Amino acid sequence: MAQAALDEIASKDEREMWAAIEYWTKQLKQVEKLLIPVTLNILLTLIIWVGVYGTKTDSNSVFYYMLDPKHNRTTGSEIVDGMVNGMGCVLMLAVISFLLLAMALHDYKRLVQLWLYMSCVLIIFGVFASFLIDLFKAVGFRPAPPILTTLTVIAYGTVGILVFFTKRTPLYMHQFYVICNCSLVSVFYLRMFPTHTAWFVLVCIIIWDAFAVLAPVGPLRRINEKAHEYSDQILRFLMFTAEDGSDEQREEAVGLASFQM
Fold first, then answer.
1. Which of 61, 33, 37 shows the shortest CA–CA distance to 130?
2. Which GO terms describe its molecular function (predicted)?
3. What is the C-alpha to C-alpha distance for residues 184 and 61, in angstroms, rounded to an integer?
4. pTM of the model
5. Residue ranges of the domains in the chain?
6. How would DSSP label each residue in 104-152?
């Protein structure tokens, strides 16, 4: 009897193990389809961060309440300061993510929609305008030409509204805007952080994103599962998009960049 019980337990453990392997295999196959847009997002972020800003942070940033030797709030080690700041930032992202998830799960639809709509508009107009001004300065225009800047921002923002809130644009346009927006917001935050903090934040966010998207209780995964209860367009600006094998469009939330605004 004892041997039979042990065999049954072993068999159950083996079934659970294979079920877990099958689950994560499916998750990795979904992520595999999104490697190209995610890779392009990383490359564009690095190009902007290095080419336009020269990896320099903004000394007037509101984020300088963080630990940093330049402002006499430090542990005495820049590395430790960066680790503490990085973990603190990811904790803040986690709180915001689960707060939004809680509102979605409890059907505060109007509040969620307002939050996301305002975030989208702020990114495609405000953050893009800030980047464009810095881009003009980087190529020698001081100050940035106001008319050209205004027209470019209006054009980018208007097309962005069509991409995210209508179905009149092709898939590649949606992909393009999500990649650009995620990169712009990423660089926006990179410039705000003290020097060593940015690198720790990048590592922590990679780990957090993997959990948020792939784990069964991950907030972005759960929000994506709730997306069908909202407008078809409500969460599109949070998501990279891939085509599945049957040519049906599938959207997966894979990043937090737009989410955090």
1. 61
2. aspartic endopeptidase activity, intramembrane cleaving
3. 16
4. 0.67
5. 1-243
6. HHTT-HHHHHHHHHHHHHIIIIIIHHHHHHHHHHHTT-SS--HHHHHHH
